[in-house]
Design brief:
Mean pLDDT: 88
Radius of gyration: 40 Å
Structural class: alpha/beta
Largest sheet: 21 strands, mixed
Number of domains: 4
Strand content: 25-35%
Number of strands: 33
Helix content: 10-25%
Low-confidence stretches: 1-9, 94-107
Distance between the termini: 127 Å
Amino acid sequence: MAKMSDNTARPGELKVIISEDKLKAYIIAPEGIERLDPEEVRRALQEAGVVYGIREEAVASFASAPTFQPVLVAEGDPPQPGEDERLEVLFEAAPPPKEELEERERVDFRETSNIVSVEAQTLLAVKHPARPGVPGRTVTGEELLPPAPRVLELRAGRNVELRENGTQVVALVGGRPWYKRVKDTYIFHVDPVLVFRGDVCMKSGNIRFKGDVKIFGNVCETMEVQATGKVEISGMVTRATVTSGGHLTVHGGVIASKIRAGVTFPGAKKLAFLLGDIKTSLHRMVQALAQIKEHAEDKNIAQLGFGRILLALMDTKFKNLRPLVKAAQQQIAAAGPDAPPEILRVRQSLNCLVGLNPLTAKSFAELMREVEEAVNLLQEGAANPANVTVPFTLASTILSSGSVFVTRRGCVNTVINAYQGVVIKGSFKGGEIFCEEKAEIEELGSTLGSPPVVRVGPAGTIRVGRAFPGAVLQVGESRYVVTQESGPFKARLGKDGLMEIIPY
């Protein structure tokens, strides 16, 4: 650059430096220049192609005191990145923080299993949309496009479905959800069967699964297995509790344990009728409330509260509701812990109709919902009976919404309650059998111990290969006590309503 005699510089003698990303422009003056006209600086920038983001204060400052050191005189706008598509996985359950565990006074180490399961129609994951970025501009006036947001792809694997234009993943069956990621592609699956290899013990924790469970091992003392589907156990069940929504099979035997298959508990059938009648009455009350609301001004009851109106209806049009409620609560109380949680919740909710809990629009709506759920549960259980199959039992309790099959060595001091039938290969010594249809036992009772009781419904039959004295048979309300060793025979009600003992 040539120096000027008046210590000023022409635009061509000024050096403009543009950064590699074209977001900044610097200017340098030749040595010895003491002042510049700001317009000369602007022309130098224009000749260099700098047309955007010019900082006028920096131009004026540089013109009043030119320097050989680079001075920032223009700055562009960098592009603003948007947001990538984001996946929210809803079934991932993180374990409690370590400090939270340390703060607990007591930790139930049986509840340490980390097996995750979901019910059918559960929302597993949601893909949230991307947000586009904002374009930038260089000092030379060029537009700078922001980076394209990352796009995620969801794919439906086994037993799942994509909804809402591929942005939601929904389970089609109950079971264990999982997914596989390949770069930006997520493939979701639900396994309806949990295969557990090993013993269910303190180390593994209790198993609670929404689906079928196969256990290749034993269920050890104090442990619990709960599944909404079928359960198959290859080993023993000892001093434990096993509950299944479907068929339950134990290959190794049951000792001092409680096992239940299906929705079953003492009095379940009667409770289904009671709750069904309560459900009908509640829906009729809703209709009556709607009619009252329409004529509230004419009847001058607009000032009355929801609870008072409902109680008045129960005292007039629905006098049978309170007796139904009390009978249902007594039936649930008699079932005790054998009743499912949905049934136990109903008992508490019904309190608002007998004055034990406040009767409000909210409590009434919750009651209707919970009665509906309980009725559906009982009806579904009756429509899909679940069987229990075991080789032998000792000092145990078996509940089944279907039939119970003891396949080899019989039972000792065991209580069996089945909706359908009971078939026992081997002897049944001590304990009780209750079923609706037929009971078939190879050998009933023994010369030692408490005599067993076998009871079936009025239309049921009892078949015994060999019976010892003291064994009690009951068909409907008719009872018979075996007085001497006998068999084989069949017991049923005759046309006169009395029990018949028929050899065969």
